[in-house]
Amino acid sequence: MRVAEFEYYLPEDLIAQEPAPVRDESRLMVLYKDGDGLEHRLFKDITEYITPQDVLVINDTKVIPARLWGKKEDTGTVIEVLLLTRRSEQTWETLVRPGRRVPVGTTIRFGDDLTGSVEAVVDDGCRLIKFHYQGMFEQVLDRLGVMPLPPYIKKQPDDPGRYQTIYAREPGSVAAPTAGLHFTPELLQKIKDRGIPIVPVLLHVGLGTFRPVKVDEVTNHRMHAEYYEIPKETARVINETKLRGGRVIAVGTTTTRCLETAAGENGIVQAGSGWTEIFIYPGYRFQAVDALVTNFHLPRSTLLMMVSALVGRERLLSAYNLAVQLRYRFFSFGDAMLIL
C-alpha cells in the first residue's frame, strides 16, 4: 500500500488557525462504518449517539510548554529545542534545529537558570539533552518554554488553554489530543447524567503521532515510541462494557493507540503502562475500539491511515472531499468526526 493513496486536496483557507468560539459548537460529521449513512451536526449533539450501554474513553494527558529557544554557549548560535520524551529526571529526548550544528558535547543556555548539555544522538537525529537548573524543572519550563503548536498554525491562540482539553491532568505531551478539545464541562456532565461512564487513559503525545511519513510504502514507516498508562478501573469498565455488548468509544487517535496496544486478540484490555510503537493502517483488525471521535487529519499522515483502517480508505476520503465542499475546518483547531 502506497502512501500516495492517502492524498487529498485541501484548500489552505480550510486549515483552522484558531479554535471555534465555543468548544462544543464546532461542526460534527457523523459517519457510519456500515452502510452509506452520513450526518452533519454540531459537536454538542454527540450525546444523541452515545447510550448508557457504551463507555467513552478519554486521554487525560496535558501539553507542556515544550519548545525552548537557547544559544550555543561557545558561539551564540540560536538553537530551537523541542522536548519529546522524558528519559530520566534531568534528561529528555529532543528535536533540535539546526541539528547539524549541535554535536555531542554542546552546551545550550536557555536562561540564567537553565542550561542543557547534548549527551547523545539517537534515532532520527534526535538529541538526548541533560538539563541543569535550580528548583523544579516544570516551573522553569513554565517560565521559559512555549506551547509547541503545529507548524500549520501561524500564531499562538489568545487563550493558550484552548490547546488543552478541559480534563488535561498529567503533563507530558508535546501536542494536544485534539479530538478532546471539543468537550466542555457542561457537555461531559450531560453525558455522565445519562449514565454513560467516562474513563481515562494516558498517552503522552510525542513525535510518533505527528512525524511526517517520508517513505513511499506504508509498511516501511516506523512509529516513534510513546508512553501510555491504563488504570485498573478503566480496564475494568471497558471490559465489562465489551462483555455486555456495549461500544467502546475512543476520543481521539491517541486513545485508540493506547487501547489497541493493551488489548489482546480476545479484545480484553489489560491495565498497566509501557511504551507503544503501534502503527495502525488499513488491514488492521481492531480489538478494543468500536467507535471513534476524531478531527480531520493531514494528507498522507499516520492519523489518516489509522482512521482509514476503521472506516475504509475510499469511504473516508470520500467523506473528506465532502467536508472540503461543505467547508468544514481541518486539523487541530478544526471540526470533528464521529465514526460509528
Pick out its properties.
9-stranded mixed sheet; 6-stranded antiparallel β-barrel; alpha/beta; transferase; globular; about 20% helix; S-adenosyl-L-methionine; S-adenosylmethionine:tRNA ribosyltransferase-isomerase; single chain; QueA_sf; 17 strands; Thrombin, subunit H; 7 helices; QueA-like; about 350 residues
CATH class of the largest domain: Alpha Beta
Helical fraction equals: 10-25%
Task: Report the biggest beta sheet as strand number plus sense, adding barrel if it closes.
Answer: 9 strands, mixed
Query: How many independent structural domains?
Result: 2
Q: Name the overall outline.
A: globular
CATH superfamily of the largest domain: QueA-like
**Which series of helices and strands comes N to C?**
EEEEEEEEEEHEHEHEHEHEEHHE
The overall pLDDT average reads 94
State the low-pLDDT regions, or none.
Answer: none
Strands side by side in the biggest sheet: 2-1-17-16-14-3-12-13-15
Radius of gyration over C-alpha positions, nearest whole angstrom: 20 Å
Pfam families: Queuosine_synth
Organism: Sporotomaculum syntrophicum
InterPro entries: QueA, QueA_dom1, QueA_dom2, QueA_sf
GO molecular function: S-adenosylmethionine:tRNA ribosyltransferase-isomerase activity
Plain-language structure description:
It is a single chain. It is built from 7 helices and 17 strands. The protein has 340 residues and is an alpha/beta fold. It folds into 2 domains: 243 residues, QueA-like, CATH 3.40.1780.10; 78 residues, QueA-like (Thrombin, subunit H). The strands form 3 sheets. Strands 2-1-17-16-14-3-12-13-15 form a 9-stranded mixed sheet. Strands 5-6-7-10-9-8 form a 6-stranded antiparallel β-barrel. Strands 4-11 form a two-stranded parallel sheet. A hairpin with a 2-residue loop joins strand 8 and strand 9. Helix 6 packs across helix 7. The longest helix has 13 residues. It is globular and about 65 Å long. The protein starts with 26 loop residues before the first strand and ends with a strand.
